[in-house]
Amino acid sequence: MPTWIDTEIRRTSERSGYLLTPRGMHVKRTGVLLLLLFALSPDAHSQTGFDRRQVEREVMSVLDAFLDAFNRQDARAEERTYHFPHYRLANGVMSAWPAPGDEAEAWMNGTYQTLRESGWDHSSWTRRRIIHVSDSKAHIDTEITRYRKDGSVITSLESLYIVTKENGRWGIKMRSSFDVVIAAPGDKTNTR
Question: Which fold has domain 52-178?
Answer without folding.
Answer: Nuclear Transport Factor 2; Chain: A, (3.10.450)
